[in-house]
Recover the amino acids of this structure.
């Protein structure tokens, strides 16, 4: 006790308190200046990302990440000034982060996939896409999942990890699409007549484009029919309208021109009279 009292003299106590006060002031200064710099850097990043015409969701997310990383560095610097063992604290935080990362690896995978989808934008809101075996219109692209509205008006939520790891088919990216149809006529029909009917059919439809030109050719000599491939080009928004119109009107026009649309048939031929009976066995 005598040694302790000797140690804590008035001069030593004043020196210790002065040192603590200086460290606290320095820590506060580091925090205030660091926060001001973090705000400025975050605003600059937000402005640069906005000029790059990135998605607003990605801009906000990346800006928040930048701000969080900078503030963590500022807080660690302030704690180090106060004499807190930052190395041990970093080790604890790193171990906890590893455990959380392993527990949430699927969610983190969806998160990383969401960032890539928002950054590279293989589709945007309103596009008709086929992803992860689902076809629908894109409603929202979030960080963890994408919301689609199916063609029969169901809401489908698809994890972003499944989208990025599979094939993405976007039916809305290109302004035009080709409609692929097949019309079959009988072997007894006049192929020139059938071709003329199909040519007039496509030329008469107001939504079939003149450029690129429509292609009509014999694609197969099938078992019971001659198959014509009819491939007109249309605006992407008119695809299903033209598809249904040509399919229906094509059947009517071919039949009106005397062509026959064959269907699988089997013919059974019966021979008149009874078959001869087997001769009896002499040993029976």
């Amino acid at each position: 006790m005598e040694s302790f009292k000797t140690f804590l003299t008035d001069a030593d106590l004043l020196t210790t308190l002065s040192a603590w006060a200086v460290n606290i002031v320095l820590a506060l200064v580091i925090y205030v200046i660091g926060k001001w710099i973090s705000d400025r850097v975050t605003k600059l990043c937000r402005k640069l990302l906005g000029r790059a015409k990135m998605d607003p969701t990605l801009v906000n997310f990346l800006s928040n990440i930048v701000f969080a990383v900078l503030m963590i560095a500022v807080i660690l610097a302030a704690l180090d000034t106060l004499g807190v063992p930052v190395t041990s604290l970093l080790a604890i935080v790193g171990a906890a982060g590893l455990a959380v990362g392993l527990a949430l690896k699927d969610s983190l995978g969806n998160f990383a996939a969401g960032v890539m989808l928002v950054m590279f934008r293989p589709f945007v809101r309103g596009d008709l896409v086929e992803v992860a075996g689902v076809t629908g219109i894109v409603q929202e692209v979030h960080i963890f999942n994408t919301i689609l509205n199916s063609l029969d008006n169901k809401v489908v939520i698809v994890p972003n990890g499944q989208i990025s790891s599979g094939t993405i088919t976007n039916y809305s990216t290109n302004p035009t699409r080709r409609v692929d149809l097949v019309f079959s006529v009988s072997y007894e029909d006049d192929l020139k007549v059938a071709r003329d009917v199909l040519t007039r059919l496509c030329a008469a439809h107001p939504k079939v484009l003149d450029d690129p030109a429509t292609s009509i050719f014999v694609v197969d000599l099938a078992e019971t029919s001659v198959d014509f491939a009819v491939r007109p080009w249309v605006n992407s928004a008119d695809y299903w309208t033209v598809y249904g119109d040509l399919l229906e009107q094509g059947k009517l026009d071919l039949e009106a021109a005397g062509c026959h649309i064959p269907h699988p048939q089997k013919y059974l031929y019966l021979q008149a009279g009874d078959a001869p009976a087997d001769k009896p066995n002499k040993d029976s």
